[in-house]
Amino acid sequence: MIETKEALQELVEKVERKIEPVIKNIELQCVKNSEKVLTAFQKYRITESHFGSTSGYGYDDMGRDTLECVFASVLDAEDALVRAQMISGSHALTITLFALLRPNDILLSITGKPYDTLDQVIGIVENNSSLKSYGVKYEQIDLIDDDFDYAKIEEVLSKNRIKVIEIQRSKGYSVRKSISIEKVEKVIQFVKKLSPETIVMVDNCYCEMVSDKEPTTVGADIMVGSLIKNLGGGIAPNGAYIAGRKNLIELCAERLTLPGEGREVGPTLGINKSLYQGLFFAPSVVAAALKTAVFTSCLLEELGYEVEPKWNEERVDIVENIVFKNPEHLIKYCQGIQMGSAIDSNAIPEPWDMPGYQDKVIMAAGAFTQGSSIELSCDGPMREPFIAYQQGGLTYEYGKLGVIKAVERLLDIV
Questions:
Q1: pLDDT value of residue 401
Q2: Cβ neighbours of 218 (radius 10 Å)
Q3: How far apart are CA 310 and CA 97, in angstroms?
Q4: What burial class does residue 413 get, using C-beta atoms within 10 Å of its C-beta: 0-12 exposed, 13-18 middle, 19+ buried?
Q5: Measured between alpha carbons, how far is 222 from 77 in angstroms, rounded to an integer?
């Protein structure tokens, strides 16, 4: 048992030596993603004039329109919608679902139940504004051993006309593994052979720039993510993106604003520079978050905790699970992450009833941007098996220091 700061520091040094090869691979991936972003900036000849602002309706916003071209290029998509008016990843997912689905259409999730904040959007939990209330039907197929249930997918597609298939890559508040891009590619090919007209939509939150490819690279029709996660680089103060087929992006734009105006409106109110700069920094910040996750995984495993993924396993998102199986340990670890943050380090988080969640949630987020999970954060629902879901870290150095503080809190090291 580690009982002193000196003993913990010795363990930290041991862990850093152990994870060095994995860290090197993350740095190599960062170079590849940086080159992709730089190429897109150069392709569209970004200049200071693109950082300008519009107000009111936001007509003819050159910076906004070109930014969407840059995002589409980086994400290997036909088109993209990148807007501050989308307040979160869940909001962007909602816009996309309502844009693509009509009464009597069927939405099929093939990664089990989606993240908690979509329960009322879909109508899994009753809400008079849900898809269900508009006559949209919902079905789901659970994963089998962390992979798609191909037999069940084939069965459902053979019996029903499925309008949209939803794939959530990151695990959310579940105990399953996150979904690799290779598995996404394989299942998309399978679905398209059986039902070419079905729209495959991917929730790509937490997964961008972790590997060489994105879902749109491997055949997804449309994908969604938040700018206070990976692609905002810790600089974007809010916003989200939707990327994919041009005709689907147009539908989403008209759902975001209004039919007939779509993407032509939407003032940027001075945010353009932050969104460009956030994307520019995203490869480095995602790499820092991955390094922090690898360090966390190895350190907590050395301390005897169950972790997922393990430090030397393939990573497909920036999330690290720590299974505490003890509510007190979950609370103390999250409190330690808060204490190790630059912002609100004096706050002591406690479990509480958060909008959109069915269980009490403890959430540590000492972030420059409220709710930003590309910054070091840690949260978890107060239910068995009491898992901490940790993500982010703007730099590896700050991430490591935050995790050390959390471990000190967990082990009562003064």
A1: 98
A2: 17
A3: 34
A4: middle
A5: 8
CB 84 within 8 A of CB 239: yes
Q: Are 374 and 234 in contact (CB under 8 A)?
A: yes
Count of Cβ atoms closer than 10 Å to residue 385 Cβ: 12
User: Average pLDDT in the 341-345 region?
Assistant: 96
Provide φ and ψ at 105, rounded to 5°.
-70, 160
Structure tokens at 3: 């009982």
**Nearest-5° Cα angle at 74, 73 to 77:** 55
pLDDT in tens, 110-166: 999 999 899 999 999 999 999 999 999 999 999 999 999 999 999 999 999 999 999
Q: What is the pTM of this model?
A: 0.96
State pLDDT tens for residues 42-55. Answer: 999 999 999 999 99
Cis peptide before 103 (omega within 30 of 0): no
Name residue 388's amino acid: A
d(CA 1, CA 221): 51
Banded model confidence at residue 354, pLDDT cuts 50, 70, 90: confident
How confident is the model over 58-90, as pLDDT tens digits?
A: 999 999 999 999 999 999 999 999 999 999 999
Q: What is the pLDDT of residues 177-195, one digit of tens each?
A: 999 999 999 999 999 999 9
d(CA 50, CA 218): 30
